[in-house]
Amino acid sequence: MKRIKAPRLPESRVTDAVVRQAVARGHRRNPAPTHAFTLLCVLPTDAANLDDYVDALAEAGCTDATLGVDRRGRIALEFARRAMSYADAVASAIDAVNRVIPGVQRIDVRSRNDE
């Protein structure tokens, strides 16, 4: 059986319409980089069941985080978040935590480079 190669279009034939279609399908020329950081949070004293927070954080878009809990009412969320900048990644994660855990007493940010 003979294989037939599809002809390749020269690079100059890639038009803006083709690029717009690729972007609409979810392909990007420059995908956002992944930023690694940890949020250390002190829960409010009247905090609800921690299992409820896990589900709510996932629903708030924190599926890119690994959650750790200690017995003193603190949680650590290790993120690997895609965003155009480190600041955008951290800000979106803090916003999600503040929405899910109202009254969170403190949030510290640690870059994975700091560890």
Highlighted features:
4 strands; alpha+beta; 115 residues; 3 helices; 4-stranded antiparallel β-sheet
Structural class category: alpha+beta
**How large is the radius of gyration?**
21 Å
Q: What helical percentage do the residues reach?
A: 25-40%
CATH superfamily: ACT domain
Text of the CATH class: Alpha Beta
User: Count of helical segments?
Assistant: 3
The main pleated sheet reads as:
4 strands, antiparallel
Characterize the structure shown:
With 115 residues, the protein is of the alpha+beta class. It has one domain (34-114): Alpha-Beta Plaits (2-Layer Sandwich). It is 30% helix and 25% strand. The protein is built from three helices and four strands; from the N terminus they run αβαββαβ. The protein has helices spanning 16-24, 50-59, 86-100, and strands at residues 34-42, 65-69, 74-82, 106-111. It has a four-stranded antiparallel sheet. The longest helix is centred in the last third of the chain and has 15 residues, at 86-100. The mean pLDDT is 79.
Short description:
This protein has 115 residues and is α+β, with helices and mostly antiparallel strands. The chain is 30% helix and 25% strand. It has helices at residues 16-24, 50-59, 86-100, and strands at residues 34-42, 65-69, 74-82, 106-111.
What is the secondary structure topology, with strand pairs?
Layout: H1 16-24, E1 34-42, H2 50-59, E2 65-69, E3 74-82, H3 86-100, E4 106-111
Antiparallel strand pairs: 1-3, 1-4, 2-3
